[in-house]
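Predict the structure of Excreted virulence factor EspC (Type VII ESX diderm).
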Amino acid sequence: MGGRKIDTEEMRDVADNAVSVVVDLYYDLVNDTADAGLVRDEAFSDANGSVHSFGSSWDQCFKLFYNCLYETSAASEAYQKALKKVADDAEDDEAMFESSFDEARDDELGSDYTTVEDQVKDQGIDPQTDDAYDLEEAPNPYEDELS
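Done. Here is the predicted structure for Excreted virulence factor EspC (Type VII ESX diderm).
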């Protein structure tokens, strides 16, 4: 990803603050439209409850408008949930990657790394009786470079 990192806090902030406002607004529009539908039924019906011909055309437009609002509100809510899920997954993946990296690093260190105790035994020093941490006697592979 070229050094880019998923900002999970920003994703949650967008989901909780920006997208939630959109979701609420669209659901309000859906409810207002449903209320307007009741007025519409009265406006385009005669006393017997029959819908006028213009009312039928208007009814189709109204249903389309209502369905669009409803679908947009549902899609916005799904988008909000998806953002939160992506943030959760990113954190889980990052934690998994970090632990995998730590394990791999430990495995690599384990293959070439020896403890101080093992190193001093190789040099004939007994860590129980001798001072294994005497820096004057410790080997220095960079000694030539330091002088």
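The radius of gyration is 35 Å.
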